[in-house]
Description:
By secondary structure, this protein is of the alpha+beta class. It folds into two domains: 2-77, CATH 2.40.50.140; 84-222, de novo design (two linked rop proteins) (Up-down Bundle). It has nine helices and six strands, in the order E-E-E-H-E-E-E-H-H-H-H-H-H-H-H. The radius of gyration is 18 Å and the shape is globular.
Amino acid sequence: xxxxxxxxxxxxxxxxxxxxxxxxxxxxxxxxxxxxxxxxxxxxxxxxxxxxxxxxxxxxxxxxxxxxxxxxxxxxxxxxxxxxxxxxxxxxxxxxxxxxxxxxxxxxxxxxxxxxxxxxxxxxxxxxxxxxxxxxxxxxxxxxxxxxxxxxxxxxxxxxxxxxxxxxxxxxxxxxxxxxxxxxxxxxxxxxxxxxxxxxxxxxxxxxxxxxxxxxxxxxxxxx
Length: 224
């Protein structure tokens, strides 16, 4: 039965001369692949142009077990980003976190709490009042709860990745603070890069699929 589901764009790539394939994390069916066939019309060009990292979309799906590719016809944006594509820090964060999620969210099972978390986080990033410089740190630390790898910040985290006292306190602040509180935490650019390295080391310690991140260098450059 054909129905609508919300989704978050994780990655996309060109397929053939005029089509795109997008991997989208859907609210109802987890990660699924959709093909967008282009034609020489303005409406179709707009359809493909919305395939940006972390885009929030609504798309039709006639779900079938083990089906590998769905048509993207009829997909619409749920939210037109006002700030993410136009602010360097927010745009870099969106590319980086979309790559992280693309590596980690491989399941084809729905996870409503996770989907709600992701949606709320993305909407917060796009807010005009959000600075965004700490967003990737906040996001990664809070995401550990939904991935089942959250641990006691003072004992386990400090031991596994050798946080100093200042970093341990900072980890706790990001883990327990609201999005607004975390956005206002004062960090130097170099400090952000060092702390991000510790967070990624923690992810790699628990999740083998993390691997190398192509967008990491770009994000670090922003905070040089």
